[in-house]
Specification:
Elements: E1 6-10, H1 11-14, H2 16-23, E2 34-38, H3 44-57, H4 67-70, H5 72-81, H6 101-104, H7 112-123, H8 132-140, H9 146-160, H10 172-177, H11 187-192, H12 205-209
Antiparallel strand pairs: 1-2
Helix pairs in contact: 3-5, 5-9, 7-9
Length: about 220
């Protein structure tokens, strides 16, 4: 049996409600300890490398929280462990022909899991020990690779997704851009705030519906 892998997050930074969704047990928001969040695909070492790379792509700065606070690495881990990560829903059979990716999309044989494992090798096991400037230079060398393009896209997704996908912790991404959540209609608000700025705390889909929502990556039955 494979040894269970974890990545550490500061409990106080994430808050009790977020940790409950990640760990499955109620933890006080005042907890001082770093909490182990179970990983589904990455090893602990791989997760630390991806977390460090994500922090350079979307850093924490004067504009607000970045990939680290949003828990982007957990979002990526969950996606890669799902059918998406193994290309379960992408046609990968032959015949193999040359095709324009800008028209037909990615035509290679590597799955997202394969792409990340190869990309982590390119970043190097010493990536987390490098200075931010050295990390940037190493990432710049990979900018034109499929791995970097996928990682960048996943960083944006993990920052801006609905929290049910285990990214966008505490909805930091939505707060950053002023997105109130996936509301069906804003007609009432438009009538109540004519010509005025509308500012409201964001709500996740689960909060809007009033019950938990199971993300597609947690589905056990095949999607037709």
């Amino acid at each position: 049996m494979k040894r269970r892998e974890f990545i550490l997050f500061p409990a106080k930074a994430l808050g009790g409600a977020v940790l409950y969704s990640l760990v499955g047990e109620l933890i006080s928001a005042d907890a001082e300890d770093r909490v182990k969040v179970p990983l589904r695909f990455f090893t602990e070492e791989e997760a630390k490398i991806i977390q460090a790379a994500a922090a350079r792509i979307i850093p924490t700065d004067e504009c607000g929280p970045g990939a680290t606070e949003a828990g982007v690495v957990v979002y990526i881990d969950r996606q890669l462990a799902s059918g998406y990560g193994t290309d379960k829903y992408r046609y990968t059979k032959g015949p193999w022909v040359e095709a324009d990716e800008t028209i037909f999309g990615y035509q290679g044989r590597s799955t997202p899991q394969d792409t990340y494992r190869a990309g982590i090798g390119l970043l190097g096991k010493d990536f987390t020990a490098l200075s931010p400037e050295e990390q940037d230079r190493r990432l710049e060398k990979l900018e034109r690779t499929r791995f970097f393009q996928m990682l960048r896209d996943h960083c944006v997704e993990g920052l801006m997704c609905d929290p049910m996908h285990k990214g966008n912790k505490n909805m930091v991404g939505w707060k950053l851009i002023g997105y109130p959540g996936p509301q069906l209609s804003y007609i009432a608000e438009m009538e109540a705030y004519p010509g005025k700025a509308y500012r409201v705390a964001p709500q996740s889909l689960s909060q809007i519906l009033g019950h938990p929502v199971k993300p597609v990556e947690d589905e056990t039955k095949p999607i037709l």
